[in-house]
Amino acid sequence: MITSALLLFITAQFITAQFITAQTPAPAPAPAPAPALIQLDAAVLAWTDAPATMPKGTKMAVLEGDPKKEGIFTIRLQAPKGFLLGPHTHPVDERVTVLEGSIAVGFGTVVDKNQGRSFSAGAFYVNPPGRTHFVWSEQGCVVQITGVGPWKVEAHQAP
User: Fold this and answer.
1) Model's pTM, two decimal places?
2) Which of 93, 87, 100 lies closest to 45 in space, CA to CA?
3) Cβ pair 59, 47 in contact under 8 A
4) 41, 47, 50, 75: least buried by Cβ within 10 Å?
5) Quick check: 136 and 113 in contact, CB under 8 A?
6) Residue 121 carries which DSSP code?
7) pLDDT (average), residues 42-50
8) Beta strands of the chain (E only): which ranges?
9) Helical H runs in 49-124?
10) Would you kindly state where each structural domain of the chain is located, as residue ranges?
11) pLDDT at 148 over 80
12) CA of 78: how far to CAs of 50, 96, 139, in Å?
């Protein structure tokens, strides 16, 4: 008799524990961290030499993200007078805002400055991925580029 009562008691405790566990809500997931606040003054930008795929004398400042990694990025490029970047493509959209000076863009596999369009401070343009283009600036310029990485300059290879 004691054995039956003990077995009944243990069974009741087990069923009660299962019921309570089933009724207890799972803890809420931790909230996602807040996005980083980015506020930069032009005077504090860290300008470095641009990658080797850019013409000598070109400087670059990363404002957000990392153009070499997946995710959104914003960079500034400072191109010297006489800047010329030959025919190339990018694997992702290139959204360009001209901040200072002017820059010209032409499309095709051969540099032909008569076929380009010039953009001055305040202008905006988008070069789609895979579209072969070339850029130049007679007076020098500062442009801001925003995109989704990884971003790179892929020189056009002649057939």
Assistant:
1) 0.77
2) 100
3) yes
4) 41
5) yes
6) T
7) 94
8) 48-49, 59-64, 71-79, 83-89, 94-107, 117-120, 124-127, 133-137, 141-149, 154-155
9) none
10) 42-155
11) yes
12) 9, 13, 11
Nearest to 78 by CA among 149, 146, 155, 145: 145
CA nearest neighbour of 107 among 137, 130, 81: 130
Q: What three-state secondary structure class fits 39?
A: coil
Q: Is 115 helix (H, G, I), strand (E, B) or coil?
A: helix
- Whether 6 has a pLDDT exceeding 50, the answer reads no
Answer whether residue 24 shows pLDDT above 80: no
CB-CB contact of 147 with 94 (8 Å): yes
Q: Which among 38, 106, 47 has a CA at the least distance from the CA of 72?
A: 38
Length of the chain: 159
The tokens describing 142, both together, are 């500062």
Written out in words, the top-level CATH class of the domain with range 42-155 is: mainly beta
Q: What one-character DSSP code corresponds to residue 67?
A: T
